[in-house]
Amino acid sequence: MGNGMPTIVEAYKGTDETTIQSIGCGGMGGEMTAVDARDGKIVRIRPYRMDERYTAEELAPSMWELEKDGKTFRPAMKGAPNYFSLAYKNRVYSKNRVQFPLKRVDWNPDGERNTQNRGISKFERISWDEAIDIIEAELSRVIESYGPFSVLCVGEDGHRESKDLHAGGGMHANLMSKLGGYTRETRTPDSVEGWYWGAKHVWGSGSNKGLGMCAPVQTGYNSWNVIKDITEYSDLVCFDAGDWELTQNYGSQFLSRLLKYWEELGKEFVVVDPFCNYTAACHETMKWIPILPATDSAFDFGVMYVWITEGLYDKEYVETHTVYFDKLRAYVLGEDEEGVAKTPQWAAERCGVPAHTIKAYARNVGRKTASHCHFSSGAVKVPYSHEAGRTGAYKLAMQGLGKPGVQQLHLNAMVVAKEKIARSTTAPFSSINQCRMFYPTVQSLPRTEVANAINNGKVKWWGSPCIVYVETSEQFQEFNYPAPADKGGAKIHLLWSEKPCNMNCWNGGFTFQDAIRSPEVECFITNHQWLENDSLFADLVLPVTTCLEDNDSMGAGMSVALRRSGLTPPACERVGESYSDFEIACKVGERFGVRDQIDLGMTQDEWLKFGFDQSELGSEISWEDFKDKGYYFPQIDPAWKDLPAGMRPFYDDPVANPLDTPTGKLEFWSDALAEHFPDDKERTPMAKWLVGGPASEGWTHDESLWGERCKEYPLLVTASPARFRVHVQGDDIKWFREIETCKVRGKDGYQYEPLWIAPEDAEARGIADGDIVKIFNDRGTVLLGARVSERVMPGSVMVHKGSRVDPIAPHLDRGGAINLIAPQATVSQHCKGFVVTGYLTEVAKVTDEEYEGWKKAYPDCFDRDYDPAIGINYKSWVVE
Ligand SMILES: Nc1nc2c(c(=O)[nH]1)N[C@H]1C(S)=C(S)[C@@H](COP(=O)(O)OP(=O)(O)OC[C@H]3O[C@@H](n4cnc5c(=O)[nH]c(N)nc54)[C@H](O)[C@@H]3O)O[C@H]1N2
Ligand SMILES: Nc1nc2c(c(=O)[nH]1)N[C@H]1C(S)=C(S)[C@@H](COP(=O)(O)OP(=O)(O)OC[C@H]3O[C@@H](n4cnc5c(=O)[nH]c(N)nc54)[C@H](O)[C@@H]3O)O[C@H]1N2
Ligand SMILES: [Mo]
């Protein structure tokens, strides 16, 4: 080539090493990819053919197939990785990679700590020895002064890159458990808040017992054959707050293919969503019903009204499988003390969907065989999400949940066929994932309440002291932070994070920033691959390897067509001086003489063999063959097709197969809630339409269009995951940042996160496409770039979550991290789950005067190194 560049063919000739990797970024493996490297550096990542090392005969016992009307569907041999993993070279070699240990320049552990400067002052490079010296001294000091429970291990569990042995999010806890304990930051049932706090009181503990989505108790972990059942029996597939073409693709593109197949079978689809999401936009057969955010329970009651008045529900099932329908009926028809009929017109005035559309939807679902699909559902991440969680469950209960073709298809029900050997959703190798071991401790705190704990010094909450949410009754257990002093309870003074994105993934981001700046927080350490989000507020940042640099194993996440296990040797050389979280815990553990309790005296290869031995894989393949091939697809139970689908056993015989609710049936009203929280006016025993109100009147939220705050902040924001990021991961991928829907280039050259706004709402505010705008409420202001579009329901705006924070001043940010202005308040009084979408905001164009004013007041922020191709980066924050 004339420019001296090699041609593509020449460029890959010298490839000398290819490894197979699984890049899922949900903490679980994605589809397999082949990663080609040369001279220790990745040159490209490509889809992998699963039959490369196995013959069709060898694969046959692991394959499933769906069949309907002579059309078949089976896993594709050529993997369909998510676009995110194919672009991962950009992540490994990002200009934002943390290469060396960093210390905030004006944080001096022996002098001024300048905690108020977190997120303002920059970093300098230090050596690993210096970093470990500081950690040893700080841990020893706070343990000595306040006791071990003053250390909060942030980020226990949750999502991250896909790793097993090297997984972060619990290695610090592993270490601290050997040093006397720590405060556990428990993950709330984040994906599924409304199902957990609401629907569990309708259908029992549910899937995985923990998540609160439906599943017969007796099938244990998974809901087998739900996809098969829908394929065979459903005429109508409803996506109420689920975007398969966006959210399912973070593992692989299997469910996109499945949608195509269902389309070929002639199934009808409907999407009820404030945004014309990708599922609605990509399929011409999809009908989009725009709805205002956080109003699904009103919509649902309108639908139930039609079903009751027109006899379009399964009366016999309701009679035999449910209790307290009379109470629901009275509420819906207005025959209770409230006396308000929830007619389609009543619903329309609240959810913004015209009454005739509500009727049409109700009749369609009522007459056809319909299933409801979502991974977790955006409607259950809003204020008072237990109401939408419960009305979602009521709708299914009224249509005969478990009947052929009447299913809830959710995250744990994505696995098509049951395997012969016992596995978790991750892999047999999760047995070496020490982060999943939940080291016992006496003091814990929900992730949603960390800021309150620091700012107010105490927190009362209900739930489970660890992420293993199990029984519904756990919601009646009360906990207090700090734990009683005689048990060692102590206030938090040191934070150590292995998932540094609380301000960007959880509720109340700006409040979390305030908390971190408190002098009470004497030291804040993060382990991180990239210099972003919480790490910008840290005192010490420790460089972490990406999943492509570790010697590890792989499992398969939920939206992967064929589940498998495998080994993932390093694909490339390590970047900078990075170590995995496991290795960091070992290094620090060495100083305290407990290293052997963490690595158990085993090499990494021995750990991988140990993981294999712990699993049941040995019953199907030898270690030698497994190591030689590199991966293996566990065999399918030959009788998988005969297993009852989802809730079928309960449908067939509710007496023989009761739910684990108090009555064994579906409960429209919960005596357990009435008994335990008799004075809770928010989560009452039966779901109702709830608008909240001022705090002075005892309400947790005033986030609706019918209260006081909406007068100032009239737009409801939808903030769900981004198509081209996985939560906060991947915002620096330059291949994606070029895409129009990913970023909006402001006239200052900055790549702003898009604010999607309807034409009439934009016009009313004098906003044109491409303008720099601000979204704000009483919690703060975030700058964005306007995308004027009819894809948004008027009265609402849409901002994808996960853009990185780029602080200008306290409560003012340029990076587009929408969770900064999410409520700090949790789901409701007794439900400490998060609220991250469906809350009130206002939007305005940023005037030149205002912009110049900020530039003058905060020159450091506007002068930071900025590369539009990847955004803010390492150079913006590290002094040479
Ligand atoms: N507005 C809004 N907010 C939401 C949601 C929404 O729909 N809307 N969805 C919610 C849901 S469903 C979920 S599950 C949560 C997800 O929230 P998280 O589980 O917090 O999400 P991730 O982005 O996966 O966070 C991983 C963090 O750890 C870092 N990381 C990755 N791998 C490693 C590692 O190996 N070691 C270390 N030390 N760090 C690592 C990443 O850079 C990132 O900062 O977000 C929730 N937040
Ligand atoms: N690309 C990508 N894929 C992902 C993730 C990611 O970060 N990026 N995250 C993964 C994780 S951990 C999870 S839990 C799943 C979540 O996957 P999903 O179950 O699909 O749920 P959400 O992404 O929360 O929301 C999906 C849809 O709900 C809509 N929605 C939001 N609020 C409301 C509302 O009040 N009412 C109604 N009717 N609709 C509403 C949104 O517009 C969106 O189209 O996605 C997973 N897949
Ligand atoms: Mo999630």
Automatic annotation (TrEMBL):
PROSITE patterns assigned to the protein according to its UniProt record, in alphabetical order: MOLYBDOPTERIN_PROK_3
Coiled coil start-end: none
Location of the Molybdopterin oxidoreductase domain: 97-591
Transmembrane segments: none
Requisite cofactors: Mo-bis(molybdopterin guanine dinucleotide)
Top-rank lineage group of the source organism: Bacteria
Family from the record: Belongs to the prokaryotic molybdopterin-containing oxidoreductase family.
Protein name as it appears in the record: Molybdopterin-dependent oxidoreductase
